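Encoded backbone
================
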Amino acid sequence: MLSLPNLLTLSRILAVPILVFLLWRPAPIDYSITFVLYCIVGITDYFDGYLARAHGQISRLGQFLDPIADKIMVAAVLIMLISSRKANPEPEIAGLHIIAALIILLREIIVSGLREFLAELKVLMPVSRLAKWKTTLQLVALGALILSGALPGQPWVHDVGIVSLWAAAVLTLVTGWDYLRVGVRHMD
């Protein structure tokens, strides 16, 4: 349980309340600190899996916690960016862009429930390569949107975040549909 990969995964979960607290405040310095912490958390997401595979420390706990850590962080950051207020009264994610955030949140809930259902049937649903790209786009989008709060004079950073958010939402729909098709085959 206390292997380095598992500790890295647990550190990601423990970082979520700190990210939420920092995003609660509208000052650019808070967004700057949040961006640095977010990048560190993202790096640990890569290294926990890499180290687990490289050192033969893949564990059931790690396999269970890793996707949960990702989903908790993405959901918390999305919600905070929808409700956040910078120096101007507009949140980082507003208007129609909330639809992209909702697509991402709803897919994560549906796929989690589907995985739980299929696990009871002893059916594995491995993460697809496209789903890994989806996660990468989500992380880039959220990172850019956090950074845009730190750099309010650079609107292109926000634009990169929004474009990446929509690209992630499209991949979210595609991968969610793929998982749903696999799951429906086992719902007799």
Summary: The chain has one domain: 4-184.
